[in-house]
Design brief:
This protein is mainly alpha-helical and about 160 residues long. It has a domain at about 50-140: Cytochrome c-like domain (Cytochrome Bc1 Complex, Chain D, domain 2). Helices cover about 60% and strands about 0% of the residues. The chain is built from 8 helices and no strands. α3 crosses α7 and α6 (about 100-110) packs across α7 (about 120-130). Bound molecules: heme C. Heme C (HEC) binds near residues 86 and 105.
Length: about 160
Amino acid sequence: MTERSAIWRSVAFLGLGLAWAAWAFAHGKDRWPVPAEAKNVKNPLPATEASLAAAKAIYVDNCEQCHGEKGKGDGSDAPMYSVKPADFTDTHMMEEMTDGEIFYKISEGRRPMPSFKKRLTEEQRWQLVNYVRTFAPKPEPAPKTVGASVTKKVLPHKHQ
Ligand code: HEC
């Protein structure tokens, strides 16, 4: 009796696994699904100079061969893969991702990118989140600042 239910259980697991694989295959090519709760995880680590320097060394050892020295996705191993490594200089893409999302992706990996959950500590992975954010050019400063300085210059004239 127990043996039979064990068999049924493994059949059910196999079915679930196959369904997941089919789903992953159908959806996997364009989007990298990240659970909402992972997206909402807050980054506990401030991007200090020391932690960014530490992250750079980790990046050179573990990421640069695919993502490239400047984060453009053009590392020396990049041509070996059919999926292009992400370009971290893409400001739009980087702005769309939360820190929690980047952390999740580094932790889990996705072929050909390996999972770094076991290779790197949690702290090292958060350091990398801050580090990959340094590649994208900063967005244009808000035009408000310009307006404010113009107003300052104009106002005194009005009173004279
Ligand atoms: C073997 C090559 C390889 C290595 C090594 C590698 N990556 Fe990747 N990485 C990729 C590829 C390919 C993708 C795109 C995967 C996809 O979109 O399916 C990617 C995607 C990412 C993304 C997600 C960007 C997005 O578009 O969603 C992040 C973040 C990332 N990598 C960070 C890192 C970091 C940090 C390291 C080092 C700890 C690293 N990767 C190491 C190949 C690699």
